[in-house]
Amino acid sequence: MRIGLFATCLGDTLFPEAVKSTAVLLARLGHDVVFPPGQTCCGQMHVNTGYQREPVPLVRNFAEQFGDASIEAVVMPSGSCAGSVRHQHALVAERYGDAALRAGVATVRAKTYELSEFLVDVLDATDVGAYFPHRVTYHPTCHSLRMLRVGDKPLRLLRAVDSIDLVELPEADACCGFGGTFALKNADTSTAMLQDKMRNIATTGADVCTAGDSSCLMHIGGGLSRISSGTRTLHLAQILSATRTSPHLPMEAAR
To answer: Taking the model in full, what pTM does it have?
Structure first.
């Protein structure tokens, strides 16, 4: 299958390893991964903040970059960006776009997937040959749960990882408090929610807290580092791409 990889803003600027790991994993599974060089922000942050007309050029560019019929699927290591493409782009195109934009958005949204749902729903794969001998807990992000409804797909993938010690996160479906601009506009509330999340992570004794969104991991990881918790954050793609022959960095070296 020819797969178009969408890097996302955070992946491009702060967490490139999550994007690289996604490409490595999909290629290892036998697929042709392409990276349209003209891709930009999907426009999620504009829509979430109430600016629905402004991202029209971004939505149009996304449809043009990934609308090529040779690209059979668009995959991204982000539940929030996948949710934006699948739900918000249609809203923007309907309200402020033209017929060409609406058609382009419909074409691309039908083949857009967050990484875990692509692996499980499209490739019918849960065991992807990963090896990760560490204690891990999983935080399900809000957009993946409530907008994409990926359910337990990330957990099914993690349970199949060789040598992993996967432990359940208490109150897992509670928001971590990030929410993009929410963390800036409501800093006190965001911080309180983060503290609850960190307390629950601490009870697991996990070496790693993983998730499908770099944005949540950035928020959680920042909090964990400030209290020197000993738990680090790592994107789901980085765990799934690790193998016995190409393992992830030892935990003590990666801190």
So the answer is: 0.93
